[in-house]
């Protein structure tokens, strides 16, 4: 009788462990699918706000709770009509133009509805129109009216970013979420050109 009771307790314990493990897997899957995701920064297009080798946590519900605003950094999936075989699936950029805005780009300043926009504080480069594209002795302005349900986005490292200047305005439906913080960072920096853990970047917020 005593042995049978011990076997029953062992059986219940194993069942509990299996149920708990399955529940944890399901919850983790739902969180990844609907609430939070992890992404790696592959390029220097957001430098120095984000560096290649930064791993970031992204809230997929952020813009269900609050609306996208000018200046927000967003993670999005590049639409199939724009994507090439070499293009990454997901990108991260900063919103410059809202639906209905008139965005005018000069070589170094972005104007929205006639108002000059501040450059990102950590931008590695603010060149909006590369000097190689400027006509000799002249200037080159580009003006875009952002359609309804779309956004005009730029990388913070404006001299090296594949963004709305090249493929047009981003449909709102492509937005995945808002970046929260850097949870891991491995790569080079100005102080050390060899790849290493950048401890000073871990758990830093993204603005």
Summarize the structure.
The protein is of the alpha+beta class and 207 residues long.
Low-confidence stretches: 1-6, 27-31
Q: How far from one another are the termini?
A: 65 Å
CATH class of the largest domain: Mainly Beta
CATH architecture of the largest domain: Ribbon
Shape assignment: globular
Radius of gyration: 23 Å
The secondary structure category is alpha+beta
Count helical runs. Answer: 3
Helical residues, percent: 10-25%
H and E string: HEEHEEEEEEEHEEE
CATH topology name of the largest domain: Umud Fragment, subunit A
Instruction: Tally the beta strands.
Output: 12
Rounded mean pLDDT score: 82
The major beta sheet can be summarized as: 8 strands, antiparallel
- Looking at this structure, what is the CATH superfamily of the largest domain? Umud Fragment, subunit A
What are the salient characteristics of this protein?
207 residues; alpha+beta; Umud Fragment, subunit A; 2 domains; 8-stranded antiparallel β-sheet; 4-stranded antiparallel β-sheet; 12 strands
Architecture overview:
There is one protein chain. The protein has helices spanning 2-35, 62-65, 164-167, and strands spanning 36-40, 54-59, 73-77, 90-97, 102-105, 110-112, 115-116, 142-145, 150-154, 170-171, 175-189, 192-197. It is an alpha+beta fold and 207 residues long. Strands 1, 2, 3, 4, 9, 10, 11 and 12 form an eight-stranded antiparallel sheet that branches. The chain has a four-stranded antiparallel sheet with strand order 7-6-5-8, with no helix packed on it. A hairpin with a 4-residue loop joins strand 5 (102-105) and strand 6 (110-112).
